[in-house]
Design brief:
Layout lengths: L2 H12 L2 H21 L3 H13 L6 H14 L2 H14 L3 H13 L1 E8 L7 E3 L6 H17 L1 E6 L2 E5 L2 E5 L6 E6 L5 E3 L1
Parallel strand pairs: 1-6
Antiparallel strand pairs: 1-3, 2-4, 4-5, 6-7
């Protein structure tokens, strides 16, 4: 064994588990901050999730970076969840405005096939210009392709899901579409 490993093991035996978890959180936090400064959101996401797994309360900037990482990969549900944690922990007008902007500019959807049919597609004629909207569409498309379903948020636009046309406008009530693959019909709720 290397000397460093022996020293680490010796130190770990003298530290209570909570101290070890805090030290790990500090390491992940430092990396998260460094990666966020470089807009390396995949790495930010990895460190944010690792910190959550440790079960230690996180700082406001950790939750904000986690929300930004979710936004960059198009996962609006995770972004909203993280913003809500941030807002509960440190209420601010800026965070509340961000949440309200998502609710007013995006549309909550639940798209599914019956029976579940991986490999179907979610298509749009026009890719959004905004990077977060484009990421949101791509995230949904990946979920639909893998699972045959998507539950989350999409930017307004005209879509085709498993052959059914879906038109979403900002401010729409949540939309649920179950595409019946056995009969080719659809149910919109």
């Amino acid at each position: 064994m290397s000397t460093l490993l022996w020293i680490t093991l010796a130190l770990a035996q003298d530290q209570p588990p909570a101290d070890i978890a805090l030290a790990e959180v500090r390491q992940h936090h430092d990396e998260l901050v460094k990666l966020a400064g470089k807009n390396r959101w995949e790495g930010v996401e990895r460190h944010y999730l690792a910190m959550l797994e440790l079960g230690v309360p996180l700082g406001d900037d950790d939750h904000l970076a986690g929300a930004q990482a979710a936004r960059a990969r198009g996962d609006v549900v995770a972004m909203l969840d993280r913003l809500k944690v941030l807002q509960a922990q440190a209420p601010s007008a800026e965070t509340q405005a961000w949440v309200e902007q998502i609710h007013s500019d995006w549309v909550q959807v639940r798209l599914s096939t019956s029976p579940p049919t991986p490999g179907v597609e979610l298509e749009t004629r026009r890719k959004p210009f905004a990077a977060d909207e484009r990421a949101g569409v791509e995230f949904a498309q990946a979920q639909v392709l893998e699972l045959g379903a998507f539950s989350g948020w999409l930017p307004p636009g005209n879509y085709r899901f498993a052959g059914a046309r879906v038109s979403l406008d900002a401010g729409d009530a949540p939309v649920e579409l179950v595409q019946d693959m056995a009969w080719g019909g659809k149910k919109i709720r």
